[in-house]
């Protein structure tokens, strides 16, 4: 019996071993060159990030040296630059986190929620190029000439809205940053343990106490993490301050850095390199802070959630809460786009909506300009093609991490794919000029320098978004595939990737908007031979041609809306297709 | 049969193929080594240049001309004569344009075949970057006064523009007619002044003020003015829109369009008169379209172009004294270009000190 049992056991073990061997062979047969391809890709991305940064650091050390950095710090404008940059970053980050927390709480935890639409509304600004939003707000709230001021002629000049001010700049920063904080905070609200809120209510706690003592404390780690993420984005932001801060005499590092390279003759490389190093160190410190917050936070998980618990009832405040959500969408998207549309049809920017002369000539002028035409076409192509290339790279990273058992390699691939996320695109742009524009690569004035820069800069966005899309696929599905004998590759191919399609297309849409609306890389790396919308927009802005700026912004927004619509439609879930 | 994975892979593959083709197309317009080559022998004689330019089929022009109607009229005038050649005209303020050309040249990937700035600092610093303007390549240079041709023949002044004060008539009146009075004008707190660091021509204006009145007047301007602007074109548009009541120093051509569209804008001439000029050159575009560039410059030095850019008297042509309503540049008009030989880092620092910058 024992022998029999042992024999059966041995047979089973042999079958099991054979099955595993077959599975391993099948794995290898499915994608024999895949790990090599991913590792080669990783090495390439590492080179494309590390080499330019090294060139920048070495050149910075050679040209400015320690004394150069001391000279930079001793520049009369440097204290003001630090004060303005850090002040605006902190203020805007705090405001963005507060607004995002309130919006997330309203949508996820109260009866004022607008359902699935409410969850998407705060993300709409992500799909509007930030430079268009900033220019739209200039047209709304510039002193004397802003439409909102034009609608309130009785308000004394000194009390008018003034976008060219610290509050104005912080306001537009906040609108831009809210989605970055909203995503992690709303996710945390979705997963918190609701029973504690129920218990507090049963014990007589009001909504305010429940919010501050239970809900807010439960998502505190996510709020802290979001604050650091938002601070990283704010510190590196270029498109908003270049439009508003320059005119408001607010000195922002990213703007001064780009100006040192692109506006001054001879180019002030000492200042550019010194500021790049400073920004790089600051962003690395913020990234370290984020890692500490994430590793120190205790997050509740889906499994811990108490289903069936009721949402917080806001009573009459429900309508105010809903108005706040809609107000945010109006302020971040609808109003600035409306202002852009109005100015795009005016003969010259006129705050009097009824008194202005309207014309189609501005559209004829922009669409008749060959460089503007090419900039629109190039941006469209780059957004779509580099977007899909970035997504394919991101999927490769994701699949490799799932397939490999080597934790070290997995961490290296992951780290390399995300490293550009902690380097500002402005800094990377300067580093790319130093590394690749001249010999031996001679990529300056070619489209390839833009292609490489976009791929490197936006790969972290792709990987992080794809990760969250992957995380939404429950392990029970992949386990079921494995139980039914599917190999790992087959599971990934047949189960994981198809279920990720909505996430993949949504990420593609996001990358498209980010790439077409990107300004600092466009200004630094694009030339009239390879124009993109960002460069043309900056050129029109520099020319003071506000009507053309408005036309191009409207066209950019329309193209982005159409492409995003098509991509989201193409990637909609299967059940939505049937409906 | 519904198969999302296959659809996705098909879509990505299609995008990949289209992408490769499309990016190759993009790259055609942006390779670092354009079709021609510097070693190729230049065509002999102007007729040969015209034929070679038609073969090139396009020309890239960098300019700081602020008036869109003038830019369009120049392109139209050139294309009437040479319909086979497409003109890509890129407009930027002179300061950023100078920086862009310098960075392109240093990277070995120049874009412009012909260009115009309002100062000659870049040209004088790097004469090796520019081709000589000689009668065999640009025949109209034979009509040009010597004063307006660089000694190394690497650039020419095509017209002069007087520095003026631009103001919105709804928001300002009785604007002073001298720089001295302007510096102490009680409404100067509402005005914006050009930051001399944003463009060499504004630095030239500051040198002129310093030369005539000393550092004290610069300091008075800095103490009394409401703020500074970086872009003269943007500042002019802000005056037209009523956002800023007064800006200086500006040039008439930046507000000509706004005036013709009915914007409440006026221009005040200011004594002593100082002007800037449009200065044209031919960068060595390493085979881009050098012949089309020469052809365009020859057109810019024609009577037709002088008539277009003079804008019915807003600017002064430096040649052709028989164009109606376009008086030629006055003999004694001071130009900022005359001051640039004295522009050193030390002078720049002293002016910044006087202005508190």
The CATH topology of the largest domain in chain B? D-Maltodextrin-Binding Protein, domain 2
Distance between the termini of chain A: 60 Å
Dominant shape of chain B: globular
Query: Mean pLDDT score of chain A, rounded?
Result: 84
Termini Cα gap of chain B: 71 Å
Description:
Chain A has 579 residues and is mostly helical. Chain A has a domain at 368-579: Orthogonal Bundle (MetI-like fold). Helix content of chain A is 75%, strand content 0%. Chain A contains 26 helices and no strands. Chain A has helices spanning 2-30, 34-63, 65-74, 78-109, 115-120, 130-141, 147-150, 166-191, 194-202, 207-218, 220-236, 239-244, 253-262, 269-296, 317-345, 361-367, 370-403, 407-418, 425-437, 447-471, 475-483, 488-517, 520-525, 533-543, 546-570, 574-578. In chain A, helix 6 (130-141) crosses helix 25, helix 16 (361-367) packs across helix 25 (546-570) and helix 17 (370-403) packs across helix 24. The longest helix of chain A has 34 residues, at 370-403. The radius of gyration of chain A is 26 Å and the shape is globular. Chain A starts with a helix and ends with a helix. Chain B is an alpha/beta fold and 357 residues long. Chain B folds into two domains: 46-160 and 277-331, D-Maltodextrin-Binding Protein, domain 2, CATH 3.40.190.10; 161-275 and 339-355, Periplasmic binding protein-like II (D-Maltodextrin-Binding Protein, domain 2), CATH 3.40.190. Chain B has 13 helices and twelve strands. Chain B has helices at residues 4-28, 46-56, 68-81, 94-106, 121-125, 179-183, 200-213, 215-224, 232-241, 253-260, 290-300, 303-310, 345-355, and strands spanning 58-63, 86-91, 114-117, 130-131, 155-168, 191-194, 227-229, 246-251, 265-269, 274-283, 316-317, 334-335. In chain B, strands 1, 2, 3, 4, 5, 6, 7, 8, 9, 10, 11 and 12 form a twelve-stranded mixed sheet that branches. The longest helix of chain B has 25 residues, at 4-28. Chain B is globular, with a radius of gyration of 23 Å. Residues 23-40 of chain B have low confidence and may be disordered. Chains A and B meet through helix 17, helix 20, helix 22 and helix 24 of A and helix 1, strand 2, helix 4, helix 5 and helix 9 of B.
């Amino acid at each position: 019996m024992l022998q029999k049992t042992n024999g059966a056991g041995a047979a089973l073990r042999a079958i099991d071993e054979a099955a595993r061997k077959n599975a391993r062979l099948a794995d290898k047969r499915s994608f024999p060159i895949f790990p090599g391809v991913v590792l080669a890709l990783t090495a390439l991305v590492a080179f494309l990030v590390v080499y330019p940064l090294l060139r920048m650091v070495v050149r910075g050390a050679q040209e400015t040296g320690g004394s150069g950095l001391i000279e930079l710090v001793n520049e009369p404008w440097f204290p003001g630059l630090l004060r303005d940059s850090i002040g605006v970053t902190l203020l805007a980050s705090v405001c963005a986190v507060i607004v995002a927390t309130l919006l997330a709480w309203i949508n996820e935890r109260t009866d004022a929620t607008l359902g699935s639409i409410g969850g998407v509304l705060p993300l709409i600004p992500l799909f509007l190029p930030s430079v268009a939003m900033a220019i739209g707000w200039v047209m709304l709230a510039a002193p004397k000439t802003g439409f909102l001021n034009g609608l309130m002629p009785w308000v004394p000049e000194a009390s008018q809205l003034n976008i060219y001010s610290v509050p104005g700049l912080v306001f537009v920063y906040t609108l831009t940053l809210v989605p970055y904080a909203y995503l992690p905070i709303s996710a945390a609200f979705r997963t918190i343990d609701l029973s504690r809120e129920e218990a507090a209510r049963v014990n007589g706690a009001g909504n305010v106490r429940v919010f501050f003592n239970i809900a807010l404390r439960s998502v505190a780690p996510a709020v802290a993490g979001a604050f650091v993420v938002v601070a990283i984005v704010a510190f590196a932001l270029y498109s908003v301050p270049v439009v508003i801060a320059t005119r408001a005499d607010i000195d922002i590092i990213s703007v001064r850095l780009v100006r040192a390279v692109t506006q001054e003759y001879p180019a002030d490389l000492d200042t550019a390199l010194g500021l790049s190093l400073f920004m790089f160190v600051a962003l690395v410190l913020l990234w370290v802070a984020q890692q500490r917050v994430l590793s120190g936070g205790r997050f509740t998980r889906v499994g811990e959630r108490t289903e069936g618990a009721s949402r917080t009832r806001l009573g009459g405040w429900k309508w105010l809460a809903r108005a706040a959500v809609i107000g945010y969408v109006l302020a971040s998207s609808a109003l600035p786009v409306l202002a852009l549309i109005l100015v795009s049809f005016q003969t010259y920017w006129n705050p009097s909506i009824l008194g202005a002369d309207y014309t189609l000539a501005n559209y004829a002028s922009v669409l008749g300009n060959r460089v503007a035409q090419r900039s629109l076409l190039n941006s469209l192509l780059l957004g779509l093609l580099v977007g899909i290339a970035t997504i394919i790279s991101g999927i490769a990273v994701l699949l490799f991490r799932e397939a490999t058992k080597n934790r070290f390699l997995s961490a290296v691939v992951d780290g390399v794919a995300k490293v550009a996320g902690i380097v500002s695109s402005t800094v990377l742009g300067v580093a790319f000029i130093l590394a690749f524009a001249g010999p031996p690569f001679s990529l300056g004035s070619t489209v390839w320098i833009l292609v490489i820069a976009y791929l490197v800069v936006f790969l972290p966005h792709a990987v992080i978004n794809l990760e969250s899309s992957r995380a939404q696929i429950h392990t029970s599905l992949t386990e079921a595939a494995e139980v039914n004998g599917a190999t790992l590759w087959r599971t990934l191919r047949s189960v994981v990737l198809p279920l990720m399609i909505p996430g993949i297309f949504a990420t593609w849409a996001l990358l498209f908007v980010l790439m077409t609306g990107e300004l600092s890389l466009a200004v630094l790396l694009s030339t009239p031979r390879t124009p993109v919308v960002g460069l043309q927009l900056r050129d029109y802005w520099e020319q003071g041609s506000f009507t053309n700026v408005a036309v191009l912004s409207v066209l950019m927004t329309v193209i982005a809306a159409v492409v995003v619509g098509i991509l989201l439609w193409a990637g909609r879930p299967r059940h939505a297709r049937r409906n | 049969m519904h198969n999302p994975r296959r659809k996705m892979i098909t879509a990505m593959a299609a995008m990949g193929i289209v992408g490769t083709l499309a990016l190759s197309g993009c790259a055609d317009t942006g390779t670092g080594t354009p079709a021609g080559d510097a070693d190729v022998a230049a065509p002999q004689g102007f007729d040969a240049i015209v034929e070679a330019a038609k073969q090139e089929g396009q020309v890239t022009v960098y300019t700081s001309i602020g008036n869109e109607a003038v830019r369009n009229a120049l392109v139209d005038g050139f294309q009437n004569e040479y319909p086979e050649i497409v003109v890509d005209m890129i407009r930027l303020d002179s300061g950023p344009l100078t920086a862009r050309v310098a960075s392109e040249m240093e990277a070995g990937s120049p874009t412009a075949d012909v260009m115009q700035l309002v100062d000659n600092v870049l040209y004088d610093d790097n004469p090796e970057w520019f081709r000589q303007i000689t009668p065999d390549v640009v025949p109209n240079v034979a009509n040009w006064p010597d004063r307006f041709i660089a000694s190394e023949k690497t650039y020419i002044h095509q017209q002069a523009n007087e520095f003026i004060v631009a103001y919105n008539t709804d928001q300002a009146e009785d604007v002073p007619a001298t720089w001295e009075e302007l510096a102490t004008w009680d409404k100067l707190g509402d005005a914006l002044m050009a930051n001399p660091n944003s463009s060499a021509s504004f630095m030239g204006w500051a040198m002129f003020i310093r030369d005539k009145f000393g550092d004290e007047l610069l300091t008075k301007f800095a103490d009394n003015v409401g703020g500074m602007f970086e872009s003269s074109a943007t500042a002019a548009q802000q005056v037209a829109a009523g956002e800023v009541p007064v800006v200086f120093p500006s040039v008439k051509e930046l507000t000509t369009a706004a005036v013709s569209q009915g914007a409440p804008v006026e221009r005040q001439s200011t004594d002593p008169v100082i002007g800037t000029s449009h200065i044209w050159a031919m960068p060595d575009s390493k085979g881009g379209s050098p012949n089309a560039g020469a052809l365009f410059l020859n057109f810019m030095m024609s009577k037709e172009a002088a008539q277009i850019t003079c804008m019915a008297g807003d600017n002064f042509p430096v040649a052709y004294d028989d164009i109606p309503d376009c008086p030629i540049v006055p003999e004694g008009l001071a130009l900022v270009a005359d001051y640039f030989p004295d522009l050193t880092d030390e002078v720049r620092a002293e002016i910044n000190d006087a202005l508190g910058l």
